[in-house]
Specification:
By secondary structure, the protein is an alpha/beta fold. Helix content is about 45%, strand content about 20%. Strands 6-2-1-7-8-10-9 form a 7-stranded mixed beta sheet, sandwiched between helices. Strands 3-5-4 form a 3-stranded antiparallel beta sheet. A hairpin with a 6-residue loop joins β9 and β10. α1 packs across α3, α2 packs across α4 and α5 packs across α6. The longest helix is centred in the first third of the chain and has 17 residues. The protein is globular. The termini are far apart. The structure holds S-adenosylmethionine. S-adenosylmethionine binds next to loops.
Length: about 280
């Protein structure tokens, strides 16, 4: 199993950027075991051997689904959504008043809770958005996660994690034991299957990018490469939002932290950087 594990982690890193910790090989084996059995293999090692020797795109996609950590919840960390509603969107409504269009991208949206939290936040502005195009795109490498996101059906535990009770009543309807997101919100999110290692050419220009709790799975070089490419996709006065444990310290990709706004980053050579510098001087 050790040699097979080494080969598999090499392949996964090459295809997805995800670095598998060798210490976690038993966890990996337990995640892959049901998949191996369902596909008629007698062991995980045999399945990996097959993957290495033949092109098996469908099986490979299932392996990636099984290895990707999809942990997420509505309004995760709260602050980015508060910040988005209190500062980012009001700023964009002024700055884009001529174009009347705003483009937001959730780059690793898992099962949809993050873009739907944004869609609910945006919906609070509905009276001011007549005539505006609010483009909310959400993607993930995991096909299974994107399928679940598109479906928009969540169990009781999922809707209770982080969701304000009035939002649950307002934006979801009961379906048996589960809760379905309102169609008018679901239809506002364009979901797609997308790997962050691929070119971002068709993704921008964006005003806001959420890239949360995914960079932690990559090595420094992959992280820096993604951050640099994101800086070319996000407009100069746009915003990047990372996860709470993904703080950038060294200006990676040309991003600097926005003052007093944890998890929010702006272009080092953009208009918000000036405000950031003035703020830092006053502090
Ligand atoms: C822990 S979840 C984070 C979900 C959400 N952004 C949040 O913060 O709650 C990480 C997600 O990153 C996705 N992912 C991992 N590698 C990826 C890649 N190379 N391209 C796109 N998504 C990737 C996984 O499938 C998973 O859904």
């Amino acid at each position: 199993m050790i040699a097979a594990f080494g080969k598999l982690s090499g392949l996964i890193k090459e295809l997805t950027g995800i670095v598998i910790d060798p210490e976690k090989k038993f966890i990996i084996e337990s995640r892959l075991m049901p998949l191996a059995r369902a596909n008629g293999f007698d062991s995980v090692a045999t399945m990996i051997h097959m993957l290495m020797s033949e092109s098996q795109p469908a099986l490979l996609a299932e392996v990636i689904d099984a290895l990707a950590t999809n942990e997420t919840f509505f309004f995760r960390d709260r602050a980015p959504f508060d910040l988005f509603g209190a500062h980012i969107l009001p700023y964009l409504l002024q700055a884009r008043a001529e174009q009347r269009a705003v483009r937001i991208w959730c780059t690793a949206c898992s099962t949809g809770q993050e873009p739907y939290s944004l869609a609910m936040t945006i919906d609070q502005f509905a009276p001011r958005l007549t005539g505006w195009r609010m483009m909310l795109q959400a993607s993930d490498i995991s096909r299974k996660a994107i399928e679940a996101a598109r479906n928009g059906l969540y169990n009781q535990f999922e809707v209770q994690r982080g969701m304000p009770a009035n939002f649950l009543l307002r934006y979801f309807s009961r379906e048996g034991e589960n809760w379905r997101i309102a169609e008018h919100l679901r239809s506002k999110v364009a979901f797609s299957n997308f790997n962050l290692l691929n070119s971002f050419e068709d993704r921008g220009p964006c005003d806001v990018v959420f890239c949360r709790n995914v960079l932690i799975y990559f090595d420094q070089q992959t992280r820096n490469d993604i951050l640099a490419r994101l800086s070319r996709v996000v407009r100069k006065d746009g915003f990047l939002i990372l996860g709470s444990t993904e703080a950038l310290l060294g200006g990676e990709g040309g991003w600097i932290p926005a003052p007093a706004a944890p998890m929010l980053y702006v272009h080092r050579d953009g208009p918000h950087a000036m405000a950031a510098a003035e703020f830092a001087e006053r502090a």
